[in-house]
Amino acid sequence: MSDSRTAGLNLPASRRWATLVVLSLTLFISAVDLLIVNAALEEIAVDLKTSLADLAWVVSGFTLAIGSWPLAAGALGERIGRKPLILTGLAIFGLSSLFAAMAETTTTLIAARYAMGLGIGIVMPNAVGTIRGMFSGSELHKALAIWAAAAGLGVVTGPLAGGLLLRHFDWGSIFLVNVPFVAIALIAGAVLIPETRTPGGRRLDVVGIVLAVPAITSLVWGIIEAPERGWTNTTIVVAFAAFALLSAAWVAWELRTGEPMVELAWFR
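^ thats the sequence. predicted structure below, dont judge the formating
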């Protein structure tokens, strides 16, 4: 699979770098959300009348979704275009942030956080693909470094922003703060992000996605839960066994299908 990069590379330099700023903003927001919620867990536990242990998945659900969906989302972006996937992911993230801010139960909050992670999991691989379609050579290395630096800035900003917001507002503010950033990214992205996709007209590998997503989910879930439950806990062992079986089935399918989501033959 080779990307059709002509459209992106032929854009004016000013638009390419402006698009990079928009894509970096999306990574910054996601990195902020990895840690910003930690500052509010005690307040959330009191307000929702639950324990900190029960709220563990408010953090972990976000991480689980981010880890589970990029492979499938990247494959889908190659087929139908990366721009609509980026905008869709941002919309999911923004709407889920609103639902998280208004959550009245732990279950609702965890579901909203998972949906937020799903949105970011859709955006990230397609953002990388878009960057690779707009830059080449030394410019590509510089662009990817800038994009990655946004994550570092977000990780540092998250706890600081969380503490500052909680001094003046309730815990819902740590989710509502995402909304204006998402609105800016959506509007700017709709204007600036070029249309890119992998040519060839191949069908989407639905079976590959159906096998890959639960496989990765099992692995990430097991890694998240193992320190608490123990690495030899039956549930953890089952999770890793499911990962192994689903991964083996995925590899077997990818090697036999004529239109795989990943060309495993390249790694032979």
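Residues 6-202 form a domain with the Growth Hormone; Chain: A; fold (CATH 1.20.1250.20).
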